[in-house]
Amino acid sequence: MGEGIDTAGIDLRNGKRRWTVEDLLLEEQPVDAGHSIVLLQGEPPTFVSAWGGTVRWQERKYDTSDVKMVRSLGVKDGVLFCFLTVEDETGLEEHPFAAAYDVVKRREIWRTKLPKGFFDPGEEWSSAGGSPEGDAFVPLKDTIVVPQPSGAGGIAAGSPEEGAHKRFIGFDRRDGSEQWSRRYKGTPATASVHRLPTSSGHAVLSSTGAELRSFDVTSGRTRWTARVPAGSYDGSYSKPVVHGDRIYVADGGAAVTAFDVRTGRVVWHRDPGSLTGGTEGEPEVAVSGSGRTVLVLLGPEVLAFSAEDGRMVWRFTDEPGRAGEGEMSSRHMGLAKNALLVLNGRTLHALPVT
Fold first, then answer.
1. Is there a domain that residue 291 lies in?
2. How far is CA 263 from CA 135, 198, 203, in A?
3. More confident residue, 137 or 120
């Protein structure tokens, strides 16, 4: 957990603080780098032990006057993919790069310059915790496909890019050379992108509000389209969550819809009715590790639904004013083994889930 300039490791068995890394202001939430290592993306990027918080190493090549790591995209097979900004020889202009970094050998594998406008190096990035835009990259056999960011330094509201189709770039996994760059009709620049579990491994899902579209990321061929059923709260929707053969989306009233991954067919739709804490804020969805429980966070409430048929299993309401001054702070949730974690300001709840 990042808190100001400090980062804490919490024991999930008892909620006690195990360790603290002090005086490191993070650009985004801590990232699981694999091999029991956590990346704290500060200045410099710092890799610490997940168990004891010991600093294993700091990558100072990404904290110089001319090179900065601006966003980690995630880790696959021990390789961290990230965005960098690199100053030109004049020192007056920054250029965006994609890079691959070997977490085990502690060295950069490749670095490739991105097209101008792929993301704005001058913009501040919002927290990447929970992947607010969906999946930041799609790993194929020999290629890493990176969708153009739609926010956090990507597509700005009112910009020419806003009405365009999202750009996808395929990089060679071995040396980072650009293999192709494409835009696909039907995938707006502001859409989030999510990997889908299919035999080919090429299927992805784009989401824009209530609209869902499954397509082949290498060709753009549409597999299916679907829409969240109309309800009383059509103004906001969660980002889709993919688990097994289902896709789950919640609307602004915490009504949940389950779609079939292969066909886009609605498997079930459940509306919980009135909510104790109202419908303020953006809904979040998570699925338990077993796949048996779908969880929705909205305002001060967490609602649990059976993944099989959508029946409500339980609901949890936070205490009013827990964040101080009689108001609820922004709240987020995540999953650990057999537990749902709900962060409300500086208070962390662990709720049992199956």
1. no
2. 21, 12, 12
3. 137
| 14 is a domain residue | yes
The single residue listed with the structure tokens 């030109």 is: 88
Residue 288 CB partners (closer than 8 Å, separation 6+): 294, 295, 335, 340, 353, 354
SS3 61: helix
- For the stretch 174-194, pLDDT in tens is 999 999 999 988 888 888 899
More confident residue, 319 or 98: 98
- Tally of domains within the chain: 1
The domain in which residue 1 lies consists of 1-58
Residue with tokens 């779908």: 294
CA distance 309 to 194: 23
What is the token pair recorded at 33?
A: 């780098």
- Domain-located, residue 95: no
Q: What is the 3-state secondary structure (H, E, C) of 92-151?
A: CCEEEEEEEEECCCCEEEEEEECCCCCCCCCCCCCCCCCCCCECCCEECCCEEEEECCCC
How many CA atoms lie less than 13 Å away from 229 in the CB half-sphere? 16
State pTM to two decimals.
0.86
Q: How far is 60 from 159, CA to CA, in rounded Å? A: 34
- Given phi > 0 = left and psi -120 to 50 = alpha, else beta, which region is 141? alpha
Does residue 15 fall inside a structural domain?
yes
Both structure tokens of 272: 């919980």
**Beta carbons of 48 and 37 less than 8 angstroms apart:** yes
Tokens 């999510």 correspond to 194
CA atoms within 13 A on the CB side of 175: 3
